[in-house]
Design goal:
binds magnesium ion; globular; six-stranded mixed β-sheet; binds NADP nicotinamide-adenine-dinucleotide phosphate; Aldehyde Dehydrogenase, Chain A, domain 2; alpha/beta
């Protein structure tokens, strides 16, 4: 990192709150403890944040429960305007927020800018949805009853988000919660809290009333999220993260029969048929694989390639992957940053080693570069065998694993041979096949001749062990609303 950048980062960090947000005030943890936040490109501490615990958690959820009544009754336009102002503020600070994100998480600046815009779009989208919360009225089959349905905020929400998209994952939950009139207790990842804390401060500036959004950071997530779910004060859980943790929280939320939305892991198949436009398929694979250094739930985990084009695809991907510039994401021209931490790096190394031991060929990359920071060299593996561990585990790193197949049926059989079902991609020029395979894939989202499905206007989410519910799109706000049905006798005139 150049000295100029360091100075800029230092100035930025000085403005980011590092305490807990409870009832509109930034306060230290009751224990007084702090957690260091590290820059994964340098392994150096960049900030220290409050390490909240059970006492802090309980205070926060009590505030959220108390404020729910008044907040739930605010005019939709008022909530809409707060979100719209927050959108403007986030976009006005896009550069600063992007650099902050890169510094705490590692993704290259260009991608961080993209994520800031993506996050902001959720605020704008839900500012538009806040004033369109509808209902319906009808008459019972026998004509004797009026059935009037309205929508009410579900109540205080527990938000838990991962480190890989530190701003967007929070915005995708906070946006609809504000639009619907829900209060929140929010626990971002301990690895990347600064983006979330900066967003919370922006929402305050945008006029969000005290206590609507409360943020508790912690080194012991169970000691914060556990009491929230056990309190009986929160009515909804919305979680993005690993399937293992999601299942655990789903069990805890069941104790109070909470509404639950889960965005969990993926194991995306990326199918390239031999009739595909290979230029487009290579382009799409680079996006689906390398966005966020491969640390995405939507990452192409298994690239299934029809045998006729397998060698060609491997060679072309290797050329592209081998040419990527690896380094500190804050430096100009860098295309691949570090992984988030040592466990992530160890996992990628283990999965590559296992695939190679079972017969895969390393076409490019395959190891860590010799430099500080948690880097892994962009890698292409060809002829990956179906019994390799990476076929059933998220790689979460810059490793393209190519699995050859012969027939459409075989491709589908491999694609669906997983507990997960978040997203699937396919490349073909045959329209009929495109629809046929899309319909047969057991996933919540399909990229047909595209490597990117994320869009604030679209319903994001998975089936099977990839989750419950959808975020974004027209249905995104529904997850934060409860239907109330009013029955009334109906007598007709005359
Ligand atoms: P994770 O370990 O499950 O963490 C997610 C969040 O849960 C973090 O805030 C984490 O806190 C917290 N947490 C961990 N253990 C907990 C516990 N016992 N009780 C309560 N909270 C707990 O997942 P991750 O490794 O950070 O994130 C990567 C995973 O997220 C991948 O599986 C990826 O596919 C998935 N993901 C899914 C989507 C989607 O929309 N489907 C989007 C992005 C990522 P700490 O981080 O502070 O430990
Ligand atoms: Mg974790």
């Amino acid at each position: 990192m150049t000295t100029g950048t360091s100075d800029r980062v230092r100035a930025l960090l000085a403005d980011v709150p590092t305490d807990l947000l409870v009832d509109g005030n930034w306060v230290p943890a009751a224990s007084g403890r702090r957690i260091d936040v590290l820059n994964p490109a340098t392994e150096e501490p960049i900030a220290s944040i409050a390490d909240g615990g059970e006492d802090d958690a309980l205070r926060a959820v009590e505030v959220a429960a108390r404020v729910q009544r008044s907040w739930g009754r605010t005019a939709p336009r008022e909530r809409s305007e707060i979100l719209r102002s927050a959108f403007d503020l986030v976009m006005a600070r896009q550069e600063d927020l992007a650099l902050l994100m890169t510094t705490e998480m590692g993704k290259p600046l260009a991608e961080a800018r993209g994520e800031v815009a993506y996050a902001a779009e959720f605020l704008r989208w839900f500012s538009e949805e806040a004033v369109r919360i509808g209902g319906d009225a009808t008459v019972s089959g026998d004509g004797g009853t009026r059935i009037i349905c309205t929508r009410e905020p579900v109540g205080p929400c527990v938000l838990v988000t991962p480190w890989n998209f530190p701003l967007a994952m929070g915005a995708r939950k906070i946006g609809p919660a504000i639009a619907a009139g829900c209060t929140m207790v929010f626990k971002p990842s301990e690895l990347t809290p600064l983006s979330s804390l900066a967003l919370a401060e922006i929402l305050r500036e945008a006029g969000l009333p005290d206590g609507v959004l409360n943020v508790v950071t912690t080194s012991d997530p169970g000691s914060v999220v556990g009491p929230w779910l056990a309190s009986g004060l929160a009515r909804k859980l919305t979680f993005t993260g690993s399937t293992a943790v999601g299942i655990k929280l789903l069990g805890q939320a069941a104790q109070h029969v909470m509404r639950t939305s889960l965005e969990l892991g993926g194991n995306a198949p990326f199918i390239v048929f031999d009739d595909a436009d290979l230029d487009a398929a290579v382009e799409g694979a680079m996006v689906a694989k390398m966005r966020n250094m491969g640390e995405a739930c939507t990452a192409a985990n298994r690239i299934l390639v029809q045998r006729g084009v397998a060698d060609q695809l491997a060679a072309r991907l290797a050329e592209r992957m081998g040419g990527l510039v690896v380094g500190d994401g804050a430096d100009d021209g860098v295309q691949v940053g570090p992984l988030v931490g040592p466990p992530a790096l160890d996992k990628v190394e283990r999965l590559v080693g296992d695939a190679v031991a079972r017969g895969a060929t390393v076409v490019t990359g395959g190891s860590r570069p010799d430099r500080p920071g948690w880097f892994f060299t962009p890698t292409v593996l060809a002829d990956v065998r179906r019994d390799s561990a990476l076929m059933s585990e998220e790689i979460f790193g810059p490793v393209a694993a190519l699995v050859p197949f012969d027939t459409e049926e075989e491709a589908l059989e491999i694609a669906n041979d997983t507990d997960w079902g978040l997203v699937g991609y396919l490349y073909t020029r045959d329209v009929d096949r495109g629809f046929r395979v899309s319909e047969a894939m057991e996933v919540g989202m399909v990229g047909l001749n595209t490597g990117l499905v994320s869009n604030p206007a679209a319903p994001f989410g998975g089936v099977k062990a990839s989750g419950l519910g959808r975020e974004g799109g027209r249905v995104g706000i529904e997850e934060f609303l409860e239907i109330k049905y009013l029955a009334m006798p109906r007598r007709t005139l005359g």
